[in-house]
Recover the amino acids of this structure.
């Protein structure tokens, strides 16, 4: 058994966290970070790690940064022409710029966070991850650093390039690292049985999704609210439900509510929508 496997066995908690792009940025304003929110979340992470022995991977979405050039150059369809190549460059640059902001705020909060660039270590095929060299990330966890990967545009063997969402990154990591839990922070309280944000209220907030009730809820959990080039809420739920069947529970909760991330990191459940088997 190698050192990394021994480290995981003795680990009290390994958590995967996604900071959604709608939490970190103003999605209706290109290249506009919510600096106060990013700083608050970084401080909540630091406080939680001071109170409890937690190993973390903090991944994040792109929000109003990479989605702008990705949509402009229609990268969801892969490489079509020379303009697509320009789109890859602009999209990767935009994604990495937001990543530097997130990493810098974590460092300022007192955490030893390190950027992980998926486009430099990951290969896709038809929009799905087929290879991701994870030894550096595993080594960071072993040394109690916080790896910070992010949704990125990557080389795709079939269509030239793909936008790989943060959820796909977390799903791949979950199967490799076997975390105790995944937390997805969005800009609403969880998953709703309505696609219209004006109808979001406590009565149609879904507190738990599992393999038994998902078929009944699927039609009402529209992928339209919060949709971007990586898909909407429905795609998130499907990915997390597949992981739940493999033993990894997740929760979708509101990252704009102060203290929620810290409470969830310390073990509280039920702050949003839990996804279980």
């Amino acid at each position: 058994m190698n050192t990394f496997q021994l480290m995981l066995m003795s680990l009290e908690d390994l958590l995967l966290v996604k900071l959604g792009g709608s939490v970190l940025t103003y999605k209706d304003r290109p290249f506009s970070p919510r600096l106060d929110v990013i700083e608050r979340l970084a401080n909540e992470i630091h406080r939680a790690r001071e109170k409890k022995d937690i190993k973390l991977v903090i991944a994040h979405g792109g929000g109003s940064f990479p989605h702008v050039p990705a949509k402009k150059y229609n990268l969801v369809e892969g490489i079509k022409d020379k303009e697509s190549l320009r789109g890859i460059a602009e999209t990767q640059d935009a994604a990495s710029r937001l990543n530097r902001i997130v990493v810098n705020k974590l460092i300022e909060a007192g955490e030893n966070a390190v950027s992980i660039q998926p486009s430099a270590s990951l290969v896709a095929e038809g929009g799905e991850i087929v290879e991701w060299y994870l030894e550096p990330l595993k080594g960071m966890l072993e040394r109690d650093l916080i790896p910070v990967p992010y949704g990125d545009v990557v080389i795709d063997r079939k269509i030239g390039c793909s936008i790989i969402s943060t959820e796909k990154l977390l799903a791949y990591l979950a199967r490799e690292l076997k975390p105790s839990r995944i937390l997805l922070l969005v800009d609403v309280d969880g998953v709703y049985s309505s696609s219209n944000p004006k109808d979001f209220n406590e009565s149609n907030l879904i507190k738990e999704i599992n393999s038994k009730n998902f078929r009944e809820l699927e039609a009402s959990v529209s992928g339209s609210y919060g949709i971007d080039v990586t898909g909407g809420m429905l795609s998130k739920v499907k990915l997390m439900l597949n992981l739940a069947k493999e033993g990894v529970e997740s929760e979708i909760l509101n990252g704009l509510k102060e203290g929620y991330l810290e409470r969830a990191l310390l073990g509280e459940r039920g702050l949003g929508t839990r996804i279980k088997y």
Observations:
- The two ends are 30 Å apart (CA to CA).
- The first helix runs from residue 3 to 10.
- Confidence is low (pLDDT under 50) at residues 8-12.
